[in-house]
Write a structure and sequence with these properties.
The chain is an all-alpha fold. It has five helices and no strands.
C-alpha cells in the first residue's frame, strides 16, 4: 500500500487541481465570453463545450474522484481502526473509484 503521507499529499494536489479546473470551467460560462449565462446552458452549447473542454472535464473527474474517495477513506479509518478494516476500506473504495472512473470516462467519450 501507499504511505499515508503520500496519499495526503496527493489529496492536497487534487484539491488544487480542482480549484484551477473549476475556475477555468466557471470562467468559460461567464456572460463576458457568452451571450449570457442562460445561452451558455442551452443543449447545443453544452455539447459544443464538451467537444472543446473534454480534457478539462476528464481531469476534473479524476481529481474529484480521488479527492472525494480518499477523504471518505480517511473518515472511515478514523471511525474504526485496525489493519483489516483499513485494508477493506481501501480496497472497496479503490474498486468503487475504478468503476466510477470508467463510467465517467465512458460518458465523456459518448458525448464527445
Amino acid at each position: 500500500m501507499v504511505r499515508e503521507s503520500t496519499l495526503m499529499t496527493l489529496h492536497y494536489i487534487a484539491a488544487a487541481i480542482m480549484v484551477v479546473v473549476l475556475t477555468i470551467h466557471v470562467l468559460m460560462h461567464t456572460p463576458v465570453l457568452e451571450k449570457g449565462y442562460e445561452v451558455s446552458l442551452e443543449y447545443e452549447r453544452v455539447l459544443e463545450h464538451y467537444n472543446v473542454a473534454w480534457l478539462d472535464l476528464a481531469i476534473l473527474l479524476y481529481a474529484a474522484l480521488f479527492h472525494g474517495l480518499n477523504g471518505l477513506r480517511v473518515i472511515l479509518i478514523e471511525l474504526h481502526q485496525g489493519p483489516v478494516w483499513e485494508k477493506a476500506v481501501s480496497w472497496t473504495l479503490l474498486i468503487i473509484g475504478i468503476v466510477a472512473a470508467i463510467y465517467g470516462t465512458w460518458t465523456l467519450i459518448e458525448v464527445v
